[in-house]
Design a protein that fits this description.
The complex is a heterodimer of chains A (about 325) and B (about 400). With about 325 residues, chain A is an alpha/beta fold. Chain A has 12 helices and 8 strands. The radius of gyration of chain A is 19 Å and the shape is globular. The termini of chain A are far apart. Classes of the chains: A alpha/beta (about 325), B alpha/beta (about 400).
Chain lengths: ~325, ~400
């Protein structure tokens, strides 16, 4: 049974160990129509698109994690339209692990109500499987970023996902020497957009929530020994994952992360979904720092479904020409 | 429309408040829903960029100052309080000559996560420390671990301020400030409740104009004295049968932040149609900051501030609005779908269906007058009033 989720801070391991399929919900190629009756047009198209999917799709439940104001309210809206929901209060300020472990314990109780009992053994197994998947994806992306695969694995069982990445690894070839672009932003499930960068002669590095931020983690150094420590393991793993603008980190960790990623890139493209406050607040100051590093910077605003790619192509080609 | 005389006093009081800020040796920029009592207890002057944003909106300079931020790359889709305030920083001035440079920043996300991003931007501009008080969102119920999480952060915040200011927190002073804060909130709530009289002695526009002291001066004697006087004026009006508008036939409730640059316009629009906006959810949000549990001040602050109006789930919001509908005996609700405030606006389509009286949604923005479409708003409101 599918349990839908939207945010990469969702503890997929726990959902999986309870016997559900964690299934990431994206806006699709279809136009957003039904959702417009439930949320205003100035909600981002990822939120509206996900609501459209929920209204049309077959899900057992949805799990939200507190990240932006839109998703915070979307939980209630999903419930209003008759969906089974749970909201995990992922802290905005990264720091207090004990607090978050308690929140995860409550999540276990909710899953139990949903008919999914989590044992230490099942959770440990899921932790291992997801780690294997994430490490393999990381390997695949150091050879050649494969956005079709990384998006696909977010909607299938983790064991099948590992097999898929194994297959891809067999045929993956390292990209040649092309100018490198860092694309940074929230979600982009539209493969066409990545193709445009390749067609313009770029090699890609990304800081995208449907790309690298799905699998870039810093794992805790301890091995879980019981259910409590397994939850702590998950809490730490997600606290120290690739940073996201919806969170507050000490010492501007998010900015440092992006600036470091950009070091070996020739250009940086902000691929931002219209109305995405967390990213748009960061954009001007981050852009300034990137330009101080000598990087060419461009902003591309996306609305889903992406209907016209030609305008985006022009922007990318113009950027390629100035490098 | 018979405006309250106290509004003049409010202007003087707020002028004094802003002047004092220019002279304060230590100040913190603070969000409207943060526990300001701690700052007062440390003698740190609180600066309210949101109030400043409202003021800019009311003086119709919203679009002008927003453009300073937009030119620097801040998107027009971002919150207009943030945009116009950041714009004023870049412009180096504002309708009141700009805000004093902060010693530190204090953002509490019990009103939105926007303030976290906004204050991160400020922290980079001014190169001053930022403390984020992270409030768990209370979707269904306040849990013990949520409360502990907030309490621990309040103690962290005290250490943070002690380090910056080199001052020690005086417990007795904090208690005194909290009591003053509670007294002001109580008086303020009583003022708002006066609008339950029929006809109402005030409109929500009076409430909007006179909310600045409860936001900015909560915890001081000024706020207590101000709302005492406001209450007297309202009591006097009720006694003499003076109503805010003539021929009050329809009573309405406003939802969301006001459209600051159109306060007068809305007031006259409704008055002409014998409709009185007697209350609103925005100013009522501050009436909730008054329950202190037991004798532990910090734990009381944690509880009161965690369950603020914008930090609760839709079911709880519906209950509150339905209660206001009952208290103020209103015939309908006007919901401002505010492009600048997602946590306030998303969910309105659903809330609307659960209210005990009819409602209408109008699209606008609280500060940015460039997105206001008068014809659309008029059409919607006229159709709604005819239906009532």
């Amino acid at each position: 049974m599918k349990v839908g989720y939207l945010c990469t801070f969702t503890p997929k391991e726990i959902i999986h160990s309870a016997g559900f399929l964690p299934y990431r919900v994206f806006a699709t190629e279809s136009p957003i129509t039904l959702a417009s009756g439930y949320i205003q047009s100035y909600a981002c198209s990822q939120a509206r698109g996900a609501l459209e999917c929920a209204l049309n799709g077959d899900f057992y439940a949805f799990v939200f994690t507190r990240c932006c104001d839109t998703l915070m309210r979307l939980t209630d809206i999903f419930e209003f339209v008759g969906k089974r929901v749970h909201n995990i209060e992922f802290p905005t300020k990264i720091g207090n692990i004990d607090y978050y472990v308690k929140e995860l314990k409550e999540f276990l109780a909710v899953l139990k109500e949903w008919g999914g009992d989590v044992s230490f053994e099942s959770l440990l197994e899921s932790i291992k499987l997801y780690r294997e998947l994430e490490e393999k994806l990381k390997k695949l992306f150091t050879l050649a970023p494969d956005y079709e695969t990384v998006i696909k694995v977010q909607q299938i069982d983790v064991k099948d996902a590992i097999k898929l990445v194994d297959e891809k690894l067999k045929s993956a070839k390292k990209w040649g020497n092309k100018p490198k672009v860092l694309i940074t932003g929230s979600v982009c499930p539209y493969l066409k957009v990545y193709d445009l960068f390749r067609e313009a002669g770029f090699s890609i590095k990304d800081d995208i929530c449907t790309g690298s931020r799905f699998f870039e983690f810093n794992y805790p150094s301890f091995e879980p020994e019981d259910l409590d420590s397994a939850l702590r393991f998950i809490a730490e793993k997600y606290f120290y994952k690739s940073p996201c603008p919806t969170k507050h980190y000490s010492n501007d960790r998010r900015f440092d992360y992006v600036l470091k990623l950009a070091e070996d890139c020739d250009a940086v493209v902000f691929l931002l979904v219209k109305f995405c406050e967390p990213h748009f607040f960061d954009y001007p100051q981050l852009k300034e720092k990137l330009e101080q590093m000598g990087k060419k910077v461009a902003l591309i605003e996306l609305e889903f479904p992406v209907v016209s790619t030609e305008q985006i192509r022009t922007r990318i080609e113009a950027l390629r020409e100035v490098i | 429309m018979r405006r309250l005389e106290i509004s003049e006093k409010m202007r003087e009081l707020m002028t004094g408040y802003y002047m004092a800020g220019m002279q304060a040796d230590c100040n913190a920029w603070i969000t409207s829903g943060a526990p300001v009592e701690l700052l007062h207890a440390f003698d740190v002057y609180p600066v309210y960029p949101e109030n400043h944003g409202a003021l800019i909106g009311a003086t119709k300079f919203g679009g002008y100052y927003c453009e300073f931020a937009e030119k620097k790359g801040f998107s027009r889709d971002l919150c207009s309080y943030a945009r116009c305030d950041i714009g004023c920083v870049f412009a180096g001035t504002s309708p009141i000559g700009g805000l004093p440079k902060p010693t530190f920043l204090f953002a509490c996300n019990n009103i939105c996560n926007t303030v976290v991003k906004w204050y991160q931007v400020l922290s980079r501009i001014f190169k001053v420390p930022l403390f984020v008080l992270d409030m768990p969102f209370i979707r269904k119920e306040l849990k013990e671990h949520h409360l502990r999480y907030v309490e621990e952060q309040l103690y962290d915040f005290i250490k943070f301020v002690e380090k910056i200011t080199d001052r020690k927190l005086d417990d007795a002073k904090l208690r005194d400030v909290v009591l003053k804060s509670m007294e002001a909130v109580e008086l303020y709530s009583e003022c708002l409740r006066m609008a339950s009289n029929r006809p109402s002695p005030m409109t929500c526009f009076d409430a909007f104009v006179n909310m600045a002291p409860i936001v900015c001066l909560r915890g001081t004697d000024h706020a207590v004295a101000f709302y005492k006087e406001m209450k007297q004026e309202l009591e006097e009006r009720v006694k003499k049968g003076i109503s805010a508008i003539d021929n009050e036939e329809i009573r309405l409730l406003w939802d969301n932040i006001p459209v600051w640059y159109r306060l007068k316009w809305f007031g006259e629009f409704f008055e002409k149609r014998n409709a009185c906006l007697v209350a609103d959810t925005y100013t009522n949000a501050w009436s909730g900051f008054k329950v202190v549990r037991g004798s532990d001040v910090i734990s009381g602050i944690a509880e009161v501030y965690t369950v603020s109006y914008l930090n609760i789930g839709m079911d709880m919001m519906v209950d509150i609005i339905n209660r206001l509908i009952e208290i103020y005996d209103v015939d309908g609700v006007v919901m401002h779908s505010n492009r600048s405030c997602k946590p306030y606006s998303f969910g309105q389509y659903e809330i609307q269906k659960k209210l005990s009286v009819p409602s209408v949604i109008i699209e606008a923005d609280m500060v940015d007058e460039r997105v206001f479409s008068e014809a659309q708003v008029v059409t919607r409101l006229e159709a709604f009033l005819e239906m009532l």
